[in-house]
Specification:
Helix content is about 40%, strand content about 20%. It is an alpha+beta fold and about 220 residues long. It folds into 2 domains: about 110 residues; about 55 residues, no CATH class.
Length: about 220
């Protein structure tokens, strides 16, 4: 995330004019949550408050002992103390990874040099799509939607229906063939010598008639 910090860090004593000169700071900051509690807005407020306090704590003593001057602040010659400021802020221990760009300072009401522009986030990459055939199924996947499980399910249902219909057709064909074979066998049996009287066979002789008067 990107944010901008600003706040008063002075006044500091001008030894030439012998007066206290007000000073404020402006800087661009990038931070990332590495386990810090709270919402993004709360983390942003925490970054702003602790960084301004750390800048004041580091620059104040250096201005007092001559390690830094108003010229250094006016020209932005303060990059060398940024690691010390970040360490002083304690944000890393709070779970926030912070990058502080070059700071600009408003001295005695004069507009500071503008801070470095906030880098724009790169545009989101176009979703990547992949189409492949696995196990007879067309599998579609994309970087934003993942695998098209609904499409795979529909293909499996259609394939199951097709398989069931094929088995029904095969079973019906077997039944028809068996019925035809059975019918043909029955026809042959009925028309074979063992199944019907042979043509031209001698008739069975009739029983002799009984004499009259006998029962």
């Amino acid at each position: 995330m990107h944010t901008q910090i600003s706040g008063d860090i002075g006044p500091f004593l001008d030894t030439v004019q012998q007066r206290q000169v007000p000073v404020s700071v402006v800087a661009n900051v990038t931070f990332a949550n590495m386990g810090a509690p709270g919402s993004q807005a709360q983390q942003e407020q925490q970054v702003q408050a602790q960084l301004v306090q750390a800048i004041r704590a580091v620059i104040g003593p250096k201005m007092a002992n001559g390690q830094l001057s108003f010229k250094d602040l006016g020209t932005g010659n303060t990059k060398q103390i940024i690691p010390e400021i970040l360490a002083m802020s304690g944000l890393a221990q709070a779970g926030l990874a912070v990058t502080l760009s070059a700071m600009s300072f408003c001295i005695d009401g004069r507009d500071p040099q503008p801070p470095l522009p906030v880098p724009k986030a790169p545009p989101p990459a176009a979703p990547q799509q992949v189409n492949m055939r696995i196990g007879g199924l067309n599998v579609h996947a994309s970087s934003d939607g993942g695998i098209d499980t609904a499409g795979i399910k529909n293909q499996l249902v259609a394939k199951a229906k097709s398989t069931i219909l094929w088995y029904l057709f095969f079973f019906g064909a077997v039944v028809v063939v068996l019925a035809a074979v059975g019918g043909y066998g029955y026809y042959v049996y009925k028309h074979s010598p063992t199944g019907a009287p042979a043509a031209g066979a001698p008739a069975k002789p009739a029983a002799p008639a009984k004499p009259p008067g006998k029962k």
